[in-house]
Amino acid sequence: MRPLFEELDFRPTPLGDLILRRRRMAMLDDLIVYEVLLGDAFLMSSLFHDVEEALADLGLAAVAGKKLDVIVGGLGLGYTAVAALRDPRVAELLVVDTLAPVIEWHEKGLVPLGATLTGDSRCRFVHADFFALAASPELGFDPLRPGRRFHAVLLDIDHSPQNLLHEENRAFYSAAGLHRLAAQLLPGGIFALWSDDAPDEAFLAHLAEVFEAPQAHVVKFPNPLLGRDSESTVYVARNLQPCGVSDLQVANRPALE
User: Fold this and answer.
1) Out of 50, 77, 119, 139, which residue is the most buried by the measure of CB atoms under 10 Å away?
2) pLDDT of 132-142, one tens digit each?
3) What's the whole-model pTM score?
4) Is residue 34 part of a domain?
5) CATH number of domain containing 55
6) Could you tell me which residues come within 8 angstroms of residue 152 by beta carbon, excluding any fewer than 6 positions away?
7) 193 domain residue, yes or no
8) Total domain count for the chain?
């Protein structure tokens, strides 16, 4: 029988100590759970992944098209990326993560979904800071195709637009930051965001300055540790910009098919 607790990886990073651990939860019939910690923050657990999957499901359901190019911001344990790949319309998925060890966990099979992602030819990892790329539409998210635009961006990095992993991320959630992101979406493209907090009216107002009719979906999921349901939020908003920034020369598919 596996021990109750195993530390699978420990790495110092500029954002704090990064830890991957595996836990056998006796109270849940010896369920094996993977957990990720960064510094003082508990980032994620495989015990809770309903909302990460809902992020992909709700975001891609809002996209009308047959061949979709999609960005996932934040790899984590891979639940959002795997859920996105279940949509047969996804032609290519770029998963952007600033932490090289997280990408290595998937490439080396240290986490359960690693083989699924590395074995799917549609999926490509990009080792980069999502927020820096989001602020630079002239370069964009794809290092192989500068200025490329996408049908959907699915973001799961910060705990919420107010509860950030790093203060430098705050500029992204402003109207100006969202405008720069919108320049990297095709007309009618979708931006979707996971948040562990209740719907934030101030953030919805920022979204409404840039996107069409943003919605906040409250997603309930069972929490066996509390013996009741918990809730998170998925924001979904549609791009209004017809062609992004005026001086951006784009070589990509023409809009949604």
Assistant:
1) 77
2) 999 999 999 99
3) 0.91
4) no
5) 3.40.50.150
6) 59, 60, 63, 68, 70, 71, 185, 189, 190, 191, 192
7) yes
8) 1
Domain span holding position 64: 48-239
Enter the tokens of residue 63: 């996209």
Is the CB of residue 44 less than 8 Å from the CB of residue 158? no
Length of the chain: 257
- Confidence band, pLDDT 50/70/90 cuts, at residue 1: low
Q: What is the four-CA torsion angle of 52, 53, 58, 59, rounded to 10 degrees? A: 70
